[in-house]
């Protein structure tokens, strides 16, 4: 993967594909319409100042797993790797381990 650094107010995420598994353990393919809504944070941009003059820090740090809005962000393909560039406000939750 190339060296991608998000600008202030943005986060770089690698979406995690969901697998559907039946009760008997058979893995089913997920339809193409269903987009992943969680992923691993690969890089974080600097804090930014909102239109109201308040400083907004990133809600997540590198290595965190986050849940984000289904249609948020900009999709980017780096070689074979699917990536997503999200605004801080697109992050809905950070999953604790």
Describe the structure.
- It is a single chain.
- The chain contains no helices and 10 strands.
- The protein is mainly beta.
- The mean pLDDT is 87.
Compact description:
It is built from no helices and ten strands.
CATH architecture: Roll
CATH superfamily caption: GroES chaperonin
Largest sheet: 6 strands, antiparallel
Percent of residues in helical segments?
under 10%
Radius of gyration: 15 Å
Shape: elongated
Write the element-wise H/E pattern from the N-terminal end onward: EEEEEEEEEE
Here the CATH topology equals 10 Kd Chaperonin, Protein Cpn10, Chain O
**Would you tell me the overall average pLDDT?**
87
Strand line-up across the major sheet: 8-9-1-4-7-10
Class per helix and strand makeup: mainly beta
Distance from N terminus to C terminus (CA atoms, Å) equals 25 Å
In the predicted model, the low-confidence regions spanning at least 5 consecutive residues are none
Beta content comes to 35-45%
| Level-1 CATH class name | Mainly Beta
What is the total number of structural domains? Answer: 1
Number of helices, counting only DSSP H or I runs of 4 residues or more: 0
Q: Number of DSSP strands?
A: 10
């Amino acid at each position: 993967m190339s060296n991608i650094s998000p600008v202030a107010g943005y986060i770089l995420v690698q979406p995690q594909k969901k697998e559907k598994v039946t009760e008997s353990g058979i893995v089913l393919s997920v339809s193409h319409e269903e987009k992943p809504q969680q992923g691993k944070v690969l890089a974080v941009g600097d804090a930014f100042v909102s239109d109201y003059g308040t400083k907004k820090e990133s809600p997540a740090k590198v290595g965190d797993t986050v849940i984000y809005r289904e249609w948020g962000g900009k999709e980017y393909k780096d070689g074979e790797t699917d990536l997503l560039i999200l605004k801080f406000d697109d992050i809905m939750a950070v999953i604790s381990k």
